[in-house]
Amino acid sequence: MKKECVTMLLAGGIGKRLGQLTKNVAKPAVPFGGRYRIIDFTLSNCVQSKMYTVGVLTQYQPLTLHKHIGIGKSWDLDRMDDGLTILSPFTEHDGGKWYEGTADAVAKNIRFIERYDPDYVLILSGDHIYHMDYNELLHHHKSVNADVTISVIQVPWEETSRFGIVNMNNRYQITSFEEKPLSAKSNLASMGIYIFKWDVLKDFLQYDHNNPDSTHDFGKDILPYMLHKKRKLYAYPFSGYWKDVGTVQSYWEAHMDLLDDHFLLQLNKKNWITYSHDNNFAPQLIASTGSVNQSLINNGCVISGSVEASVLFEDVQIGIHTIVKNSILHPGVRVGHHVILERVIVQEGVNVPDFTTVSVPLSEEPVVLTNEYFQEIQKVGGLNR
């Protein structure tokens, strides 16, 4: 049963800044990219990297996520001796508690990790969009003999307050770590991807568990305390595409990135496939009255209007004389006739009435359209924005 490296995938996030998108589902289960859910990217990275021992830690609104993941078959993780294991909060002799932070979630599953007697533990977040070979991260970790290696990427300076910010020397050794600073000293952001020596991590998890002043979080507690104790923390600079889709704006931007001709994350790369559950809908139909330009259109869609620079998930229907532009339509959306939608995100199963106009200017955050949205609009007597 011994494995060199065990992966712990944190997938219990609420994702409050995504608003209606995460009202009834965990952030990693939010649809993304026309046929995927956000967690598919991390799970696919694990398989492509041959990291087959994966514990998925879930908590908030897990029903959709559990149904989507199943036993991991879509990612070739339905294995006998390792594979995918869902790790939800559980009750013990003391009554049990919810996971109280990222570090606490891992600490409460130490027995799962120890089943495999690993040398290293890889900690991942299930809510980012990227392709990465984790073996390269592991190789870097070994080469510098680090206690922990943090994958980092440069982010715009104005966004540094959203991330854990790393400062390092010219040998990639981390000299300080700031969790969501108001005034950052660098723009190297932690990607929420860590690889630890297991014996070191276990000691720090146990100390943190017994610390009443801790919030039991890797970024706020574990990593700063490791620095304080002068453990060896190193950075692994990542140069590919990576997106934290933690806000409605960033979620919309990531979809528009997919439509860029020169986009760095190619979903159709044969050597790095992103796997997902397939609903097996019939092929898309573009009617004689319909047109599509620079868009991702999934199976089961019937388009009788105009679609431009948009992403349509499976089983979406677009009516006659309707224009959809710079928008994201989740599975099962029905858009009526004579409708104009621009810079909106339409949630799964929503019916957009005939003669609706919702056009959001670039200066504003895209609007998430729900059935409740249209019910409220009807109460005030209008469907135009």
UniProtKB/TrEMBL annotation:
Keyword Metal-binding set for record: no
GO MF assignments: ATP binding; glucose-1-phosphate adenylyltransferase activity
Site location (Could play a key role in the communication between the regulatory and the substrate sites): Q59, W98
This protein's UniProt keywords: ATP-binding, Carbohydrate metabolism, Glycogen biosynthesis, Glycogen metabolism, Nucleotide-binding, Nucleotidyltransferase, Transferase
Domain Glucose-1-phosphate adenylyltransferase/Bifunctional protein GlmU-like C-terminal hexapeptide: 288-360
All copies of domain Nucleotidyl transferase, residue ranges: 7-260
Record-level GO BP terms: glycogen biosynthetic process
EC number: 2.7.7.27
Primary enzyme class: transferase
Binding locations of alpha-D-glucose 1-phosphate: Y99, G164, E179, K180, S190
NCBIfam families: glgC (TIGR02091), PRK05293.1 (NF003670)
Protein family according to the UniProt entry: Belongs to the bacterial/plant glucose-1-phosphate adenylyltransferase family.
Designated name of the protein: Glucose-1-phosphate adenylyltransferase
